[in-house]
Structures are given as structure tokens and as C-alpha cells.
Amino acid sequence: MKSLTSIFESIWSDYTAFNPHAKTIYDQILAHERQKHPETRALVNDHIALRTFNHPRLNIQVLGRLFEKHGYEAKGEYHFEDKKLYARHWEHSDPAVPKVFISELLTQHFSPRVREIADAAAASFTDAQLAAPEILWAGRPWKASHAVYQELLKESEYAAWLYAFGFRCNHFTVYFNALKSFTDLNDLNDFLIGKGHKLNAAGGLIKGTPQECLEQSSTLAGKVHLEFSDGRFEIPACYYEFARRYPQANGQLYTGFIATSADKIFESTNVQQSSR
Ligand code: NI
Q1: Residue ranges making up the domain that contains 227
Q2: What separation in Å is there between the alpha carbon of 47 and the centre of ligand 1?
Q3: Higher pLDDT, 101 or 268
Q4: Alpha carbon of 240 to ligand 1 centroid (Å)
Q5: Got the DSSP string for 227-241?
Q6: What's the CA-to-centroid distance between 171 and ligand 1, angstroms?
Q7: What's the CA-to-centroid distance between 169 and ligand 1, angstroms?
Q8: Mean predicted confidence (pLDDT) in 220-237
């Protein structure tokens, strides 16, 4: 069985190959940390996020099971009424291992076209492929056209993204609490803006408050040239997120997610907003 470390390495390589801005930011933050703390070896991830359809063969349980094999447990549930999404997060017994946030599109609330696309996506994988971790960075084995992508955008940005990119990590998240050289999330945001990165301003640069025990910010998805059956087009890919967690009343660090914040974070991949 592939180790959890090698699974995360594969997910990270696929993600950074598509999203060079994430790797640039990773290197810039690490360099900033090393100025005062040369012993810093790597940044810690708070969570990664994955997207799928609620198709019986592809739903969040199917993806979640791959992590459960490695000691993860399903935790919080989240509902996104407007975007018609359902999500859960998984936690590992070792808090140093990133949490996994998986969302799924509730296809019954969309046109038959969306369900056909989910069926075609499911049909492009064998049962054995769906039970192996490689599905997490399998990308898009199905044929996709830019015309259909644009059609989907009218119904759901999420559906269009999933159709175009398939199964790959939507974002990694830097765990702010493990950083030593930034005073707060604002300080980190200013640093990133100063380096020329564009941040998602939907709902303010910082989503959530210390009272809610979670503050998050994110970049706007970088644009990539993607091959479609009807040509090569530039569309927004993935973003990079930053999360700061606070202790709850019981003194324990909050480990969940805030649906209203996540709702705005999802918009980091919106076509209208995206930066490069
Ligand atoms: Ni996230």
C-alpha cells in the first residue's frame, strides 16, 4: 500500500505542476520563515480540498474511504444551499497530518446535462481505479469541450471546474499557526500582496473571525491553458489557502470549518474573479 506521505507528495506535485503560483508562494513564505528561523524545513498544511459529484461511484464517501484506510476519520458535515454542495472533512489521529475537506455537487438540483457529465466521469474509471489513491490526481480521463464548459458555467462554477480539471486537488492550505515570522493573517496577506499575488476578496480578504475560531484567506485561482476537444483555452485552475485556528472555550484548538467562510472560499476559482 502507498504510504500517506507518498500520496500527499503525488497530490502536491500534480497541484503545483498546474498551479505554479502555489509553489512560488510556498517558496516565498518558507524563505521569509528562514530569515529568522533557518532551521525551518517545510511549511505545515492545515488541509487539502477535493471536489467530486454525488454520483454513487464517485461521491465523497468513495474518496473519503481512501483516507480512512490511512487512519483518517470522518468529522464535520457542511451544507452549501446556494451552491448546492455537500461537504465533509476528515481528520487523522496525528494532528501534524493535514485534514481533508471533500465536497460534492448535488447533481439532482441541476440540468440533466450535469448528471450526464457525472455519469460519463464515473464510467471513465474502473472499480479498481476508484479504490486506488491514484484517483486523487487522475485528472480528467473523459473528453471535454470548451463549449460544454461554458454551458456549465451558467449553472455552476463548481461543475464547470470539475468537468474541466477532473480529479485533482483543488487547493492546499498553509497552516498559519505553525508559521513563526508573521504576526497575524493580515500580515501574511500583506506580504503576499506585496509579492504581487492576487487574493480572493469575496466576503473580505479574511473569512471568519477569532470568535468563530477560524480565519481563512486565499489567492485567486491562477489561469492555465487547458486542452479541450475544440481547442486550447485559458481558464482558472486552483488556488492556495491560508488558515489560522483558535482555541475554543474548552481550550482545544478548533479543527472544523465554517460553512459561510468556505462558501466564499469556493469562489476563488470563479471565472469572473480569477487573476492570471
Ligand atoms: Ni480550504
Answers
A1: 4-274
A2: 6
A3: 101
A4: 8
A5: EETTEEEEEE--EEE
A6: 7
A7: 11
A8: 95
Total count of domains within the chain: 1
Band of the pLDDT at 122, cuts 50, 70, 90?
very high
What burial letters (b/e) apply to 1-31, b meaning 16+ CB within 10 Å?
eeebeebbebbbebbbebbebbebbbeebee
State in Å: Cα 216 to ligand 1 middle. 8
Distance 222 CA to ligand 1 centre (A): 16
| DSSP conformation class of 196 | T
List residues, by chain if needed, whose CB lies under 5 Å from ion ligand 1. 49, 241
Instruction: Name every residue whose Cβ is closer than 8 Å to that of residue 102 and which is 6 or more positions away in sequence.
Output: 49, 50, 51, 52, 60, 63, 64, 87, 88, 89, 90
pLDDT-based confidence at residue 273 (cuts at 50, 70, 90): low
pLDDT tens digits for 187-206?
999 999 999 999 999 889 99
Between CA 41 and CA 46, with CA 42 as vertex, the angle to 5 degrees is: 150
The answer to whether residue 274 scores a pLDDT higher than 60 is no
CA distance 62 to 116: 19
d(CA 143, ligand 1 centre) in Å: 28
Name which of 263, 241, 271 is nearest 173 in CA terms.
241
For ligand 1, the distance from its centroid to the CA atom of residue 152, given in whole angstroms, is 23
Q: Is the dihedral of CA 53, 57, 63, 64 positive or negative?
A: positive
Nearest to 235 by CA among 197, 272, 271, 199: 271
CATH number at residue 140: 3.10.180.50
Residue 261, pLDDT score: 84
Does the model's pTM come out above 0.90?
A: yes
